Amino acid sequence: MGGRGPAGGAGSAGAGLGGAGLGGAGLGGAGLGGAGLGGAGLGGAGGGDLHTLVGAYVMDAVTPDDRVRFEQHLAGCETCRAEVRGLREATARLAAAAAVQPRDGLREQTVLAAGRIRQLPPVTADAPAGPTGQATAAGGPGAGGGPGEPGGPGEAVGASGAGSWWRRLAGTGRPRSWVPRLAVGVAVVALAAAAGLGAAMSGAEHRLDMAQTRSHAVAAVLTAPDATMLTAQVLSGGSATVVMSHRDGALVFTAAGLPDLAPSRAYQLWLMSPAGPRSAGLLPAARHGMTGPMVISGLAPGDKVGLTVEAAGGAPRPTTSPILMLPLR
Amino acid sequence: MPPAGPPEPASQDPPGSAGPGGPARAGTGLAVLLGQVARGDEDAFRRVYDQTAGPVLGTVRRIVRDPAQSEEVMQEVLLEVWRTAARYDPRTGSPASWIMTLAHRRAVDRVRSEHSAARRELRAAVSVVEFDEVTEAVEASLDRERVRRCLSSLTELQREAVTLAYYHGYTYREVAELLGVAVGTVKTRMRDGLIRLRDCLGVQ
Q1: Quick check: B131 contacting A, CB < 8 Å?
Q2: A contact test, residue of B41, B88, B91, B101 with most A CBs within 10 A
Q3: What is the 3-state secondary structure (H, E, C) of chain A?
Q4: What is the ipTM of this complex?
Q5: Which residue from B23, B76, B147 is facing A141, i.e. has the nearest CB?
Q6: CB proximity under 8 Å: B 11-50 to A
Q7: What integer pLDDT is reported at residue B50 of this predicted model?
Q8: What is the pTM of this model?
């Protein structure tokens, strides 16, 4: 979608940070912004074999790695993009044929929720899709978990029940283990450069897919002029790293070395505000020990990032003590 | 398997007018509506919802299965449409295709995580049977009938590959495993199948 289609949910790993991740020093060059850059595999001889992926690609039947490779291929092949367009129209018909009637009430609930969501401005010719516009593009409605919060759209999350432990924690209690924020302006720029973001941005016109928007959204936060980095130990093991931009009201969350959970459990990320906790979605499966990135937008002053272990499907509000509570300052 | 009816000749619809909820009719309307949505028009958003929520929910539900989660994903998709309507670029496809691509991706993202792996394996065990349901479930609507006929014009392997990927959210490797055929074959069949479907449906 021209690189500015709607971003995927924050909960999805997508084409995100590659192996190294934020917590360490470098972004994996391949992942971040890797979509569509790099000359490898563009058209030409190498493209032929890769191009047979087009069917699987338009049906999202590919791994994130495949997707990145294929999008690199697409970036240099207008014929291929035309084929993607045509096949997507065909899959849209498959979707139409599967239509069911949503239950009554969902529409107004959705419209109500829409009223609380700021719309992205159009991309203008003199200001192509760049960090500013994309920053908010990532979180998805309502910060990743968004209306997908287990509590259900439109519900006043955290208004009641759920014990008050989170209030205490969100209010004053604070794990000692987190490292105060580091000035990362320079570091982030360097990381972004290392990851090839410059090229990603300048080639934004040619992006065709939402996964790229997602990685741009990550990039947008990382490259925001006021980006700051926070790291903290997770009580149950591992560490979390947050890069946030106050200007964009968005952050990128990654974690490293989180202990594996039983299949019936999942890590759930929360935005803890004075008004209550808001789900930011379940953490995706770790790859090579790295989890994320997840982009959360719509931050408000006083928010904290929390992490709990919940049932695999997630919970409407935290049911266990947080293993991470990171004030965003 | 669907009855092997005669393949539908290329449809009479003008090309490029795909749109769920009325593929041959809704395309243009949706584009106009999206422009209004981009300007914050809630009534236009309601109309976009009316045209797309059904196909979005139906598609998501086939993949996600859980009805409550499916509703959540459907709402996420519609809200994403609201939020990013100004970024819709007609050069990349019809509005319906844009929205359905978003929906499908979200649904797949939702199920493709570690903690749902066990459930997926269970599903895999039964899905070789299940994919019949897709074509069995078609009802009397013209759109469904046309899709059904076009699906039945594919070879069996093409149809299985497309159905398992699109309606069940499997990767091509998983499909290869399920069908017991080579990965390369599955990739080719997915592409060939979609091309045949596209031509049969008369979309651009």
Answers
A1: no
A2: B101
A3: CCCCCCCCCCCCCCCCCCCCCCCCCCCCCCCCCCCCCCCCCCCHHHHHHHHCCHHHHHCCCCCHHHHHHHHHHHHCCHHHHHHHHHHHHHHHHHHHHCCCCCCCCHHHHHHHHHCCCCCCCCCECCECCCHHHHHCCCCCCCCCCHHHCCCCCCCCCCCCCCCCHHHHHHHCCCCCCCEEEEECHHHHHHHHHHCCHHHHHHCHHHCCCHHHHHHHHHHHHHHCCCCEEEEEECCCCCEEEEEEECCCCEEEEEEECCCCCCCCEEEEEEEEECCEEEEEEECCCCECCEEEEEEEECCCCCCEEEEEEEECCCCCCCCCCCCEEEECC
A4: 0.79
A5: B76
A6: 16, 18-21, 23, 38, 40, 42, 45-46, 49-50
A7: 93
A8: 0.51
